[in-house]
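Are you able to produce any protein sequence you like plus the matching backbone structure tokens because I've never seen that pairing?
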Amino acid sequence: MQAGSVRHPTLLFAAALLLLAGGALMPVPAAAAGLPSGAVAAASLAGGVPAGLATPSPAGKALPNLTAAASGSPGPSGILSPLPPEGPAPAGALLSTGAGSAVSHASAPRAVAAFDCSQVTDVPALECQALEAVYDSTDGAGWTNSSGWLAADTVCSWYGVSCSGVHVASLILSKNRLNGSIPSEVGKLTSLLHADLSGNQLNGAIPSEMGNLSDLHYVDLSGNELSGAIPFQPGNVTGLQELYLSDNQFSGAFPTQIGELPGLEVLSLDGNHLSGAIPSQIGSLTQLQQLDLHGNQLSGTLPAQLGDLSDLQLLNVADNLLTGAMPLDLDNLHSLDTFEFDGTVCEPADAAFESWLSGIADHSPATVCGAVTVPPAQQLFLPLVMSS
């Protein structure tokens, strides 16, 4: 053999160890290592990089990632470095992009492990999953306040969540930038008493599964963009006391099943697109104290059964398409202190009714049915007409 052509095994092994150690390499003279000129022994060991592609790194210089060079894309000046160790780099460590620019590992995106509801310690996993669905369906990452959500293993400590015993009893996320639809999984919150998601950007329909929440006493979904018909399964929510669905985009007929909620005290459906007549079944809500239906497209006459709501304090039917005379039965509403209506609804020519209406502290101006209304401009000439 000729001198210089022998590849000494000891030198080869030492060069490989230095490369795998991940530190900066001191240049190893090719002649001393018995290697071909311009090649690095460890490069040959690590992947068979063709001779001439790699050159030794200057002493003390940070080395770019070997993977870029090994795939045929050498770093600056053709410098090769050892492969990075497996696992995440230390915070703040620099990783090479293979094009010579360094990026901070701390700013790289990191995958977040899915929350495991089986690990929660205070409520059933099903209720945790229902809340997780609310978070996912309404862009929880964009909420104003999402403290604790899908982080703490105590669900009752999550922002807006309150519990009674080992169950979720209250969900209050009003004005919290919820954006999306209400998921059907809310039907798993079987002990929910109080739900307030008002003042957000919720859209779509109310899931029918909410009708299975038999313990519900209070629901406020007002000030959203909810649409479709108002779903009612009153047989399962007979304990409902307050229902606020105002300022949405609900349409269709006024639900006749409303009469099957005998405990209802507040019903607010104003600011929607409800049409058709006010059903006579509304007279079954004998505990109702506030009824606000203004700003819809309701038509027909006021049902006489409204006179059965003896506890009613507020009745607002303005800004609709209602016509005809007010039913005389309304004078049974002795607790009424606010009565708003359109000029297309007239007051019957009855002395007792007139006395009742005038006793209401806040009411719209009324026109007596059948009375001839003279425009103000023509009232100036009325004396002249009568004297002629």
The longest helix spans residues 125-137. Residues 1-112 have pLDDT under 50 and may be disordered. Helices lie at 9-20, 30-33, 41-47, 66-70, 125-137, 351-358, 376-379, 382-387. The radius of gyration is 38 Å.
